[in-house]
Amino acid sequence: MKKKKQIVLLVPLVVIIWGVIGYRIYKTVKGNTEVKELVTIHNLPVQAVEKKEVYTLKLDYSDPFLKNRRSYSPPVQNTVKAESKPKPVVVKTVKKIPVRWPNIVYHGLIEHKKDHRILYLVEVDGVSHFMHEGQLQDELELVKAYQDSIWVKYKEEDRKTFKKAP
């Protein structure tokens, strides 16, 4: 009996709710066909135009910030100079001598199993070196190292990337 009373009360409530939702959707889709009249106002009040006053500034007073300052006068230049030869301008050119890089070959990396230290095998002019990042060997610094390439700096001037040799 209880369930029947609940169904009797809930079914009309659900029908009413879905009816309201359906009506709102219908009104939105169909649109509002009512035409509203535009109201025009023909008798606008005329505003009086006021005459504007013109002000003038009197700027004949002394500047209060420049009371204790000496006035600046540009240095006097002699327009007539004794005949003198202009000094020759010496331009120094500095030629940058290109750095001759050694033959560098990157062979790969080795990781120590116990302390997980990584050493990189780099061959410089035929001599193999085990290096770690930041180490300097014969004026060659290993700046950054990856599994497939290294980035080195030679004689504090240039930086190059070398790929892993096959």
Question: What features would you describe in this structure?
Answer:
- By secondary structure, the protein is an alpha+beta fold.
- Among the domains are: 1-30; 104-163.
- It is built from 1 helix and 7 strands; from the N terminus they run αβββββββ.
- The chain has one helix spanning 2-30; strands spanning 104-111, 118-124, 127-131, 136-137, 140-145, 149-154, 158-163.
- The strands form 2 sheets. The protein has a 4-stranded antiparallel β-sheet with strand order 4-5-6-7, with no helix packed on it. It has a 3-stranded antiparallel β-sheet with strand order 1-2-3, with no helix packed on it.
- The longest helix has 29 residues, at 2-30.
- The radius of gyration is 46 Å and the shape is flat.
- The protein starts with a helix and ends with a strand.
- The model has no long low-confidence stretch (mean pLDDT 80).
Report the count of strand segments: 7
The share of residues in extended strands comes to 15-25%
The SSE string, one letter per element, is: HEEEEEEE
What's the rounded overall pLDDT mean?
80
